[in-house]
Every structure is written in C-alpha cells, then in structure tokens.
Design a protein that fits this description.
178 residues, Four Helix Bundle (Hemerythrin (Met), subunit A), 0% strand
C-alpha cells in the first residue's frame, strides 16, 4: 500500500515541477488536461486498491459461508465510489474547459483547473484505500454476527464522507474559475 501512496505523491509532486520546467511548451489547455487526468487516475487507483483489499476479505468469508455473499458485496463495492467521484470531477473540469473556450485558455486558467482537481484526486486516492481496509474489517462483523450488517456498513460509510468533501471542494473551485 505504501507504493500506491508513493506513486501518488510522485505524480502530484511532479506536476508543478513539470509545469515550472516546461511552461513554454505547455499551454493552458495542457495544464487543464493534466488536472483532469490526475482526478480520474488517482481516484481510480484509490478505488481499485480499496475494492481489491475488500475483495480479498470477502472471498475468504464467502468461501466459508456462501450465503453471506450479498452482505459482503455491498461492503466490497463501497470503495469503488471514489473512482466515480474522480470521473465526475474530470467530466466537470472538461465542461469548465469548454465553457472557458479551450482554444483561448490562458496558462493561469489551465493551472487553476489543474489545482482545482487536486482535492478530489488526493481525497479519493487516500479514502479509497482506507475505505477498502475499513470495509475488510467490517466484513468480520458480517462473518461473526450477520444480524449486525447495518452497523458494519456505517463504518466504511464514514470514510466515504471525506471523498464527498473532496469532490465538493473540486466542484466549488472549478465554479470559481473565470
């Protein structure tokens, strides 16, 4: 899991350095597309790792008790929402690019879009991974006390809250770009 965060940190650290070194080669549109890519890519990484971690735990439970498949499926699917949030943010950023006029976009506007995509990219990466871990732990509640499945669902849903905040932060920042 440390390698996932290492890749994300390197990608986030590389973007401003890349922008500083190659400013004359990157247009405003290019900077904006970097932000769109980060939003989708990093949120997708968080989701895929989280769903994978939860899936490992679900497989063990279902192998022992196949009737619990439906209860653990929802817990496994929860970390996948971060990827959806990243996709939504990327789509909204592309709409903002279109509304500003892609051909006439300034470097400042492109950088603003790039950095506006950072909240969803970072929060969805981190919360997707940790939501997967919490979902895997919550599956132990389902395995031992299936009647407490509702309580098990609340625990990873609390992690989801921060991914939603990241998405809302990105939406607000994108709306402020003129």
């Amino acid at each position: 899991m440390g390698s996932v965060f290492g890749v994300a940190i390197a990608a986030l650290a590389f973007a401003p350095v890349f922008m500083a070194l190659f400013t004359e080669f990157i247009s405003g549109l290019g900077a904006a597309f970097i932000g769109v890519g980060f939003a989708i890519f990093l949120a997708g990484i968080g989701s895929s790792v989280g769903v994978g971690v939860a899936g490992e735990a679900a497989s063990g439970i279902v192998a022992e008790e196949p009737e619990k498949f439906g209860r653990v499926l929802l817990l496994q699917a929860l970390p996948g929402t971060q990827g959806v949030y990243g996709f939504i943010a990327g789509f909204l950023a592309l709409q903002q690019i279109t509304s500003l006029g892609a051909a006439a976009m300034t470097l400042a506007q492109g950088r603003a879009i790039m950095f506006a995509c950072a909240p969803v990219a970072i929060t969805c990466l981190v919360s997707g991974v940790f939501q997967g871990r919490v979902s895997a732990a919550a599956m132990q509640i389902v395995a031992k006390k299936p009647e407490e499945s509702g309580k098990a669902l609340i625990l990873p849903a609390l992690v989801e809250f921060y991914a939603v905040l990241g998405l809302l932060g990105t939406i607000l920042l994108l709306q402020a770009i003129r």
